[in-house]
Amino acid sequence: MRRGRTWTKLKEKLWRSEMAAQEEFFADTCAAFIEYCPTFMVLTGIPKIPYSPSAGPADVLCFKHYNAEEVLMGRKMEDWLRFSVKYYTFHDRDMAPEGSTLEESNRNLDEITDLALQLQSQTGVRVLWVTCNLFAHPRYMNGAATNPDCHVLAYAGAQVKKGLDTAQKLGAQNFVFWGGREGFLSIHNTDVAAELKHMANFFKMAVSKCAHDYGIHSKSEYREKIGLKCQFLIEPKPKEPCKHQFGMLGSVDSNTGSPDLGWDTDQFPMDIRNATLVMKTIIEQGGLQPGGLNFDAKVRRESTDLEDLFIAHIGAMDTFARGLRNAVRIIEDGIIPGMVKDRYSSFSHGIGQKMEEGSASLEEMEVRILTLVF
């Protein structure tokens, strides 16, 4: 037991040394960046990217398909394709390093978001979403909202509260719940029902403010209390654990990976067929507002030219523009929507209609089958 405690203390000491080094590097990097490029001179030589549909293959710094002002189905392309080039997103611990206490972490976040607020007013770039990093710190090794230790869950709640306050401060359009460590490793030591209940209550606490401490048993929305006007989003992971999870989209993480690999490689999306299906779904649900298409992607390690970053964004934006045009044609020609409607036509009359309305009974189902003449 003594040896185990010694090893635990040693690991904690090593971890704190690593965190201190990261914080020092973060501070030095930010200071150097602000001093070196106060007017973004690092981008000197990159012109404004024009729309040039007739450009040749050697012209890479132009859009061949993305035309922001083009109107499709009553809406500008830039409104259908809410790219995060005009927005930025962040985890709280990406924006400012975690301190040794919650108070210190909150002060760090306040200091850097004061600067972010100034830069937003100077550039017009806005916050698409804010989220809290509830997975990187060792305290979250067994989850945050599903952690078996109430103290850890309470810490996560305090962190989310500060995240909501930060979202309000910066005018974020969305707040994301990303449960990177939620779940379990072994069913033998896990009370699944309890953990799911705790997670549900965690979401409710984030949305609503209970006033039981003051003898009041009513609830008022916390976002209304602090003046936060945003949409709440939950970030799922495809195939983690289910292939198909939700029937709705609030915002899209617009990156891709190699189909023959089993991990996320954060590549810019270049598959027109996939983009077509994505945009068809987005159109059919009326758009993504206030969400957007967030390029959570990066150029490859072998890239050494600043232009590569622009070429990658241009290619991905053109891919979605082509996908949007394809999706509009699919919807407007009516062939596939008509096929889908015909496929479910048996629910438009008789027992099918009653089933659709929720008024059919099992007895009626049995009678139909017993009396049906083939």
UniProtKB/TrEMBL annotation:
Record's catalysed reaction(s): alpha-D-xylose = alpha-D-xylulofuranose
Domain of life: Eukaryota
Keyword entries, A-Z: Carbohydrate metabolism, Isomerase, Metal-binding, Xylose metabolism
Annotated transmembrane regions: none
Enzyme class: isomerase
A GO MF label: xylose isomerase activity
Protein name as annotated: Xylose isomerase
Protein species of origin: Dissostichus mawsoni
